[in-house]
Amino acid sequence: MSTFLDWAFQLSLLSASLWLLLLHLITFALSLATAHLVLACFKGPRLTAPPDPLEAREVAYTGFWFVATWLITFLAWILWKQGIIVIRRDMGWRAWLDIPVLVLVMDFCMYLLHRLAHLPLLYPIHRLHHVYDRPRPLNLFVLNPLETIGFGLLWILVITLYPSSWLGIMSYMGINLAAGIMGHLGVEPFPGWWFRTPILRQVGTSTFHAQHHQDIHHNFGFYTLIWDRLFGTLAPGMDPTELTKSPEVHTR
Length: 252
Description:
Number of helices: 11
Distance between the termini: 48 Å
Strand content: under 5%
Number of strands: 2
Helix content: 55-70%
Structural class: mainly alpha
Order of helices and strands: HHHEHHHEHHHHH
Largest sheet: 2 strands, parallel
Strand order of the largest sheet: 1-2
């Protein structure tokens, strides 16, 4: 990894932008392919009614998301080149500790931003994402560009203030993408025993986020249920065990 970081650091602005564009495209394609593979293999009932046919607007906003996140990644590379963002290269216990630190810090910050996005003054920006209340994997990327930029700048701020290892950064980015895709599957891939395990049931699941698309006043968390439990925004009667035993199809 040190060799790769050395190589990436020496790239020109044009080369870096093109390599990041290619990496972004590959990651995007693989994430969608994986999500649809899960849906093809999953035989259980949906958590919501089936989504409407794909709209041109969904594709367009996905394109906006793609460009915005690519540019944010390019900005992060520039800040790294300037020494503003520091990426550590150690592989010891501290590097592994970076993973839960980044996940919990980002989970808390994104929870706060998500709640702010639901305030009457800001909700017109966030409303676009809730138009699609019967989610499919692509809906993860259907966001107002201002939201995409806001969440991206939050990530840059966190890794600027907290010098993380490459292991922590890469692990977090993988967890972030996996959690987002899973939250918009519209089915629950986790087995019932997952929700009966005290620690594992604190993880945000497809059931958890699907409920948020049905009830915009609860379940604001991204990766965990911790902050919703702590601040009293967990959906009333939110019991993943019961929901996965006999899931109901929701309608608008």
